[in-house]
Structure formats: structure tokens, C-alpha cells
Amino acid sequence: MDFEKIQNEIGGFSRYQVVVITTVAWLAFSAGFGTQSAVFISAIPKYRCAVPPIDDPDVYPSLGESDIKNYTIPYDTATAEYDSCNRYDYNLSSCQGDGDLSCVTFDEDPGTIPCDQGYHYDQTYYKETTRTQWDLVCER
Predict the structure, then answer these.
(1) Bridge pairing between strands 47-49 and 119-121
(2) Residue 138 CB partners (closer than 8 Å, separation 6+)
(3) Which residues sit opposite 120 in a β-bridge?
(4) What's the pLDDT tens digit per position in 83-125?
(5) For residues 12 and 9, what is the distance between their CA atoms, to the nearest angstrom?
(6) Of the candidates 133, 113, 111, the residue with the CA atom closest to the CA atom of residue 121
(7) Which residue, among 80, 45, 48, has the nearest Cα to 67 in the 3D structure?
(8) Cα–Cα distance, 117 to 50 (Å, whole number)
(9) How far is CA 140 from CA 20, 33, 108, in A?
(10) Any idea where the domains of the chain sit in the sequence?
(11) Which of 52, 59, 67, 112 could hold 97 in an S-S bridge, CB 3.0 to 4.6 Å?
């Protein structure tokens, strides 16, 4: 059978077909928002301020993640967690490596500053997510 013959038998192209096609197109278009929303609400792995060169295992091979947090990240006793968006205001450019942490002084209050060297993300479960790729954490 010919398509035009069938179309003529059912009444041709009418307002009903326009409404159906428009409705289906609108539903398909709006469904795209739901399927793509996972990109923007993706997982946020644990993170902290990056503190180079202290968190570089080549420079300080003996420091583990807990040591780095203890030395450079403020601890909030009320929430029992380390601050993810701030670090102590140490002059990290004076750190020499080889286990020498004289750049981190405990005898005075260094104050805190927002993360100025980027962020360090836990890559245990995710190598990269949308949040980690564009640093969509803290105030961002």
C-alpha cells in the first residue's frame, strides 16, 4: 500500500497530527532534562584544600592523609570533621621537603584562609566527577 493512499483514507494531514507530533516532541525534549540531570547532581567525593608541596608524596613520602589533615586543615570539634573549605594560613612555599615541616608552626595561631591552591579529592570511588572537574565545591 502507498502511504499517501492510507493518509487520504484517514482524512489527510490534519490538526490532530500536528497536536500529536507537537506533544510527543515536547515530551521527548523535556525528558532530556531528567536524563542529563545526573551530570549536574553527580557525586561529591570527600575533599580538602590542596596544600602543595606537603601533599606531594614525592616531597613528603612519610606523610599520610591523616597527617596532612592534622598539620594543615582546621578541625571542627562540634561536627567532628575537618574543614573542607579552609586551611591554616601557613607559608607553604617555605616548605623544604625531606620530612622537614618547619614551615608548619604549632606555637602560634596561624589563622585560616579559604583554599587558595585548589582542592584535593578522594579518588577511592571516583576518578573524576563533574564536581571535581570544575571544582564545584564550597562557595562555588
Answers:
(1) antiparallel
(2) 84, 85, 114, 115
(3) 48
(4) 999 999 988 877 776 667 777 776 678 899 999 999 999 999 8
(5) 7
(6) 133
(7) 48
(8) 6
(9) 42, 22, 31
(10) 3-40, 47-133
(11) 59
